[in-house]
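Predict both folds.
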Amino acid sequence: MAKDTTKYNFNGKNNLNKRSLAKEIIEKYLSENTNKTYKEVQTTFNQKKFGYGGNIVLNKEDYSFWRKGKTDSNDRFFPPISFGNDKLYINNQWGIWNINPFIEMATEEFKYDIEIIEKKEEVNNSKKDKKSENIDYDFPHKNLLLKGVPGTGKSRAIENIINNKLNLKNHKENILRINIHSASSNADLMQGIGISSKDGKIEYKEKQGLILNLIERATFKPHQPFVLILEEIQENSLNELIGDLIYLIEEDKRAKDIVADDEAYEYQELVEKIIKDNPQTAYVEIPYLVNDSTEYRKMIMPNNLYIFCTSNYRDDKKVIEDNLLRRFEVLEIYPKDSVVHEYCKELFSQINKNILKVMKEEIHPDRFLIGHSNWLNVDNKEKFYRAFLKVVVEFKDIKEVEFSDFKEIVEKLPLVNELDLSSYKALIEDLQTKAGYDFL
């Protein structure tokens, strides 16, 4: 049987199917015509040419009458939205109608811009065809936190999992990588409010965050792995950024055995169905930010969404919250001597041993270790001076180690005997000259 998979861009939202487009058009019209009465809204939208007997937008009274005598749980309407003193329900069955007359009204009468971005018919003759879209994978570790000093290959380890364990090398669309920093916000990652101006009128629109979008896509494709990568999580509080998710990521709270079809269900409809089919499914409720409805949306965590985080030992003042440590498998990643070039392997091995010895009175002396990534291709003196300069700057400016301690760590190492070890300043100037930074 052929099905229409046309997608639309409208009102700042992309890849809308027919029912999503219809809902967005109606909600935009209502927000721009708050002076209209419910009867006027009925006249505009509840026309039989639009399908389903003209029951497109109903107020609470008409909706209650429509529901009278019905025993099924599928109301065929989205949750109500406030409109003046009324609560209006928008029909969600546009996926089975010809939406073209409705689009014509929106573009010609309302002057709305609607972009058709994909128009095609796909034939789905069997469940086997559907299954062929799946990606084989077998990786049991849903929540991983890789910790260690910079340059120990944490991100590379995640790439190996993605490519070799989850088989997503050719499916980058299933992967979302976010670098956490001090300006990261919940509005960017989860949900926020977008503000725009058109014809002198300010519009407030709800903006779906990157992570919520990934959760939605993963829910609709439960047989494919999806990956959320959060890099450098020590730079901000994940409790503030993704607090609602932290509760849901535990194994026993994830939604399993999901049967999904983005042609049959809207996302919120699917969530409601999942919870109804399995009442043990954990969920959290999140509010509508622009709509003043008292209704809340439910959010679940699909079992096929992996969350991988990296954290750098750099600033001891940055603390990873206890609730994260309890919910993640925490793996410490240490420097590897074996991958360092032979030219400096002995030095690299000895410097980390000396660090642990000299810094033994510190809390967690392993946070002072040197990562191996800058030493992989150090095969001559000039490259050594450049790599060693980064070590000196890190100990001086980032780790704020006294020069006497640093000197004790490095003074007897191979390749260091020709350097000026009288002070940080003298050493840095010496290294910059020998590394070839003659433009200074």
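Second protein follows, with its predicted structure tokens after the sequence.
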Amino acid sequence: MEYLRCVVARAGDCAGDGNHSVILCRLMDLGGLVPVAGVTAQVRVGSVLTLSGQWTEDERYGRLFSVTSFEETLPETASDLEQYLGCGVIKGVGPGFAARIVQRFGTDTLKIIENEPERLLEVPGLGRVRVERIRKRLGR
């Protein structure tokens, strides 16, 4: 059994049954994108997952990670937070803005977004439109 931590970059229903899908994930440790099979379709882009399973070969997707179980988690480190915020889940917030946000707030970033989203305006270049997008997607 192997374990991976990743951020969902793209989700899609491959099986056609609405229950299982092949999703594209960005690995937290390595940063590369890999196809992942066997995760329920309710997982959203931007979700941070801890996966257990094994590497397999697929005719359509090539090498992919076949999941036996998974858990949705929150990012734990500053690096994880940067990847989580910068993965494209929030329009207009890419790796550059994600790095600036995490540099300013560190591991308190998610607490700030949830409880004091107006403080995001402290980040150079981050305007009200982006702050509102972040608040709607991740805050209360």
